[in-house]
Amino acid sequence: MRYIDLGTTGLRVSRLAFGASSYGSRDWMPWALSEDDAQPHYRAAFEHGFNLFDTAESYSSGLSEEILGRAIKRYGTGRDKVVIATKVGLAKSEGVSHGLSRKRIRHAIDDSLRRLGTDYVDLYQIHRLDPHTPLEEVMRALDDAVRAGKVLHIGASSMHAWQFATLQQLAGRDGLTRFSTMQNKYNLLYREEERETLPLCLHQGVAVLPYSPLARGLLAGSRRQDTDRSRVVRDFVRPEDESIVDRVIQVAAERGARPAQIALAWLLHNPAVTSPIVGATRAAHLDDAVAALDIVLSAEELERLEAPYVPQQVQLDRNVAPAPGQTASPDLLPLFRRRSGIMPA
Fold first, then answer.
1. Among 173, 184, 241, 265, which residue has the least CB neighbours within 10 Å?
2. The pLDDT of residue 244 is above 50
3. What global pTM score does this model have?
4. Does residue 59 have an active-site annotation?
5. Catalytic one of 59, 124, 211, 309
6. With 0-12 CB in 10 A as exposed, 13-18 as middle and 19+ as buried, what is 219?
7. How far apart are CA 269 and CA 252, in angstroms?
8. Which domains does the chain have, with CATH numbers?
9. 299 pLDDT more than 70
């Protein structure tokens, strides 16, 4: 394993992050592994040198956090040797508390700490923006968690660059904790983040932790158009996607490597990328991921891999749906302008 600075946090993390979304209950996702089945993967992760682990309260309704917490105690060498990242938002909530309200965040962090079996998390990320909660309230609630010692650093996920810039400026204006990380979808099949988000993060020293680095397995060559696809890969169905996968397979064959290794090596060449989040449901998944660290792609190979890409519309999985009984603004721009007090109306 290799290690890299997590933005400006002072933390030194593994060049690859270990994603825990695949562990929990099949009631949540049909491919999720039980705690017993997850153990070999956690053991292998620690043996490979992973020290950054990413989960969320919404993964298997919190069961993923519980499994991660127990795995760290079972295979880790101490709480000070691991960086735990979890997320708030997207979890089902009832009653007066929902979304990213201050009350919701206050209770959610305590629930996550209990499930993880720790008294603090290193990185607390908002899973999606909440269109119903004022931005000031979200940032102050996150800052409260930091000041209480329950959270060391905060992160964002899946939003437009202008939204992220607004939140960062708001935090600076009010003396609140700024985001240290951005977790966004980024891979060879979806590169729209290169337009604004990645340059913004690089400029601000924000660590980038891409999720879905293999496009749900498509870039590993394990799913093609002539095979059954689960609903989670329906966002990669363009003809251009198949051309890109073909290029990945070709470069891998020439290299004597696996397609997954080539796809990850492409991500790692980008100076804006800190630690792609990789998951494992088979033993070979982590071996492939770690092997990618030793692959340096040539300029010609990078050009071949990137050439088939055709720009596309920003995907629509960026904001939570309205809570029951509520209606979200069809255009969030006026909402953010009005609530932030930063951008002109």
1. 173
2. yes
3. 0.89
4. yes
5. 59
6. buried
7. 16
8. 3-340 (3.20.20.100)
9. yes
